[in-house]
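Note to self: the last two entries modelled the partners one at a time, which told us nothing about the interface. This time every component goes in together.
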Amino acid sequence: MIYSSRKTFLLILALLIPFGIRAQVTPERLLHANDEPQNWLTYSGSYASQRYSLLKQVDPSNVKNLELKWVFQAQSLQKFETTPLVVDGIMYITQSPNDVVALDPKTGRAFWVYHYAPSPAARPCCGIVNRGLAILGDSLFMATVDAHLVAIDAKDGHALWNVKLAEAAAGYASTMAPLVVKGKVIVGVAGGEFGVRGFISAFEAQTGKQAWRFDTIPDPDQPGHDSWRGGDWEHGGGAVWMTGSYDPDLNLTYWGTGNPGPDFNAEQRQGDNLYSDSVLALDPDTGKMKWYFQFSPHDPYDYDSVQVPVLANANWNGSPRKLMLWGNRNGFFYVLDRSTGKFLNGKPFVKVNWASGLDANGRPIATPQPAGVPTYPGIQGGTNWYSPSYSPSTGLFYLSTWENYGTIFEGVKAEYKEGTRFTGGANVSPVPGAENPTGARNGPVNTYTEAMASGGVVALDPATGDKKWKFEMHDVNTSGILTTATDLLFVGGREGYFQALNARTGALLWKQNLGGEIIAGPISFQVDGKQYITIASGNNLFAFALKE
Amino acid sequence: MRSQGQDRAPQYYPADIQYGAQIFANQCTACHGTSGDLIPGVNFRAGQFKRVVSDADLRLTITNGVPGTAMQPFAFSASELTSIVSYLRNMSSFDGRGMMLGNATRGQALFAGAGNCSSCHAVNGKGPRVAPDLGDIGALRTADLLHRTLLDPAGSMLPVNRPVHAVTKDGKAINGRRLNEDTYTVQLIDEQEHLVSLTKADLREFTVLKTTPMPSYKDKFSTQELADIEAYLLSLKGVK
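The predicted structure of the combined assembly is written out below.
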């Protein structure tokens, strides 16, 4: 009898785990993360980035019995955007600026804390934040706000190596969780508001030696450069600040790219500005690009396309197809063929007026609004970087949204000066005539939403792009989403509520006020036979499980 | 050597003063001179400064530099700053002729060889995790504290690192190094290098030992060997 290596591996794992013997996180385990739903091994739960948990202990009939098991209070008042990893009974999280904490996931007590002191030169655009980690072997990998990549011993929290990605003083930063593929740690750089030239880079996990680098803005010797004029490309943006995905069968890793620079004054960067606002399909061994798809050519609205690429295998016109599902900040929901990048379908999921639609190739039919007229969606987008979810059980794609949200855009000339803002905008949100709210935007009293926008969760049918249901929120929704094999959907929001919905109908099944904005993704894992769900809210990480 | 006044540390230690003298010789003499009196208005031996009053002032001035002057900022670790300040405060009485200079390369060989340190301690992830990784110990511990640790390990051990012995109610024995503890739980790294969290109510036996498996090197190493291994440990400043 011949066993495949995977079967043998799973057999060994099945024998080891009941006795509490922990194996290292091998590349094989990362490939088959779905085979160990008790763990959460990558930022998005698996290489397909579906944020779909196969655990079934918590279901629609008992979700009302969830109770708080513990709280971890971050030692920071910065936004808490971390998605934990859970590996064989140990949880790893990040807290601002760049600490790593190893926790007992049953009690929330810390094993150790690794402190990294970023350079004072760090100047990330939008908060000293970090979204999480990657793991391989016994090593954790964290990108830092001063644009370094650090490897840390997962057992005792000591640094193993530290490489510089780019100059923090020039506006480069990194806030994402890296992605480990086949022994390489892949990471990108933020800095799209500082006129950086973005890139994605891979490093050998063992040594930190750079394996390859892909520049998202092509130089004069690279394909795609003719989408720029003159020297505009040198500060062309295309930052990469969210984690990618990976299809092992196609051996392609997918990464979204951010806005072109300057953000809002498209006049001073003629052309399509490749590869800004695009998804790139790269060979993880070499960094060579197989295909790209640009969502928003020549973008004047800061419609970053850094959303996590969600990979799904489903029927398309009656035949199985490898799909990529993408709820874009520009307000359109896209379905692409991830083998080729071919556009299959696209439809708005919120109010959109910057384009009247998409042509047969998925290129937007631009309808720029006259001066003084609001553009929908506004600067923050119809959604943003918040992780969506795809449930193979329901076949639906779930997305957090900003509804009825517009901005009057106005581009102004931007002068590039290294390390300073290079955005070129004099924009107004909310729209004129509406009461301009003052005071705390995310505080306990909501002074913001009526004049501005509302939020929600939408369930989209990939086959048609149509909404199956919508769960409405009074305030905008900044939360990631988790779905489970029992057709539950967990989501937070700016108001601080953590909710469980019926993933088939959108009906509210359970809610808990956690008191602080939720700007992170929920996860689920199981330890000692108990299923947990965690979410960061405000400055705390909350863990829930069923009552005893 | 006892200091005077509240602006100064209660005591400056010989090992720190000596390490500070080495750093001063390498980093400071180009401008300040070997006697510390080349900058007008500043004379370290005489305790004469332009702005500095307290030890904290000294640390800040060294760390931040003095804008508009040739005094640049220096990125010294806390332990290095302690040493430099200790030396500057004792420069007039310090006799460098008796200084025992350690050799970090020889110290590294002792760490792996005769000292047998690497059978328990890793350095930047290379080695076992039975005892704490020492990859950044030179930035965390002062020269004096490293010296005392080598002579009296139990007396210098951080309480959190104490060995623990636990037996669960079903009879399973667990030994390891404590990482954290509260009223109800204890977290440790066990002998198999697994992170373990125990609920005390589930334990039949739980002991925190005041001893340490680390031997004293007081009689094991010569003064020169101690200086060598201290020089090596002081060179470990973490991954940059």
